[in-house]
Amino acid sequence: MPIQSKLPEVGTTIFTVMSALANEHGAINLSQGFPDYPCDAGLLDALNRAAQAGYNQYAPMAGLPALRAAIAAKLALQHGISVDAETEITVTAGATQALFTAIATVLHAGDEAILLDPSYDSYAPSILAQGAKPVHIALSAPDFAVDWALVEAAVTPHTRLILINNPNNPSTSVFSSADLDALAAIAERHDLLVLADEVYEHLVFDGQQHHSVLAHPALRARSFATYSFGKTFHATGWKIGYCVAPAALTSEFRKIHQFLVFAVNSPAQHAIAAHLAEPAHWQGLSAFFQRKRDLLAPGLQAAGFTLLPSAGTYFQLADYSAIRDDLDDVAFARWLCIEHGVASIPVSVFYRQAPAQKLVRFCFAKQEQTLQAASERLQVLHS
Ligand code: PMP
Ligand code: GLN
């Protein structure tokens, strides 16, 4: 018997589609964002030790106390803030679940949430699944700057939430402290909540700084902030992250969390708790990824791409109009993958209504030899 779809316009996520196409055609996969190098051997040992030690039953619902304490200690060191591990931190099955749970916690049917496009592909469907309405504001290349007056103009009596992603996937842009002040002013004036996806907090380049909502007192009071150990520890397959929010918000968040997943993978939480306690394991990531960014860039430029500045995340946006101006970005990404053996992600899929841009996204969280091999394959494009 057919059911009425909650997401009639949603197909399979572009990351699955492009990774499958890359595998099918033996392409170098610079599409879906994940490292192709191993994570830290110490982290793997810690996982093994935890499993061997018998931590194989349910973890506490909100997350292992030792992991929540390690997260609170990290936030204190990073931002000089005090976060209550007991009442304000929840360990989740990746940032995706944290985002979905926060959205389900806040939005009722008929509510509106403001999204800044390009926006990560899980946001709008998570809003729609609640019977709520995503209100999209399109930002354009090359700088994807936010006109906060436009954001405020999109607020209606139904608006409950503004979502931000800083640093942004896929635009790679990074908010200034003035951006956060403008956001806070709007949120306060209209009594809105904020959902800040900060999974790329440690990947900010060229000496810029990440400005977290957690370090902004007005935003801290009305935000859910989400994080992913998959990004920070090069282990996307572990699917562990966390959400930080004031106690009253966290209490409601956990009501949903407990029936969505109940608790998160126990041995991995033990392993991460030990690993996180050592700041050297999460500091220095910007330099690590900036080197990779700078390794891929010349190959893309030599192939005929015009590169946009990559300020953060582990992605590089590239304008391909000098190579195949006749193709839209979805067709170009398919062509590049099938004909030239390098997979990328078309940027228009992150928009409700994409501006006239010819952009694809390349992931540079790859070994040096992978980036070099991709560059070599692309050189034939240069005419
Ligand atoms: N938000 C953004 C912006 C992302 O790029 C990703 C993908 N890594 C996620 C959330 C999801 O993170 P996770 O894999 O921890 O669910
Ligand atoms: N966040 C990753 C990206 O942007 C993909 C994660 C996923 O495949 N769900 O490429």
TrEMBL record:
Keywords: Aminotransferase, Pyridoxal phosphate, Transferase. NCBIfam families: PRK09082.1. Residues 28-378 form the Aminotransferase class I/classII large domain. The keyword ATP-binding does not apply. One of its GO terms (molecular function) is transaminase activity. PANTHER family: FI04487P (PTHR43807). Its cofactor is pyridoxal 5'-phosphate. This is Methionine aminotransferase. It comes from the Bacteria. InterPro entries: Aminotransferase_I/II_large, Kynurenine-oxoglutarate_AT, PyrdxlP-dep_Trfase, PyrdxlP-dep_Trfase_major, PyrdxlP-dep_Trfase_small. It comes from Uliginosibacterium sediminicola. Pfam families: Aminotran_1_2.
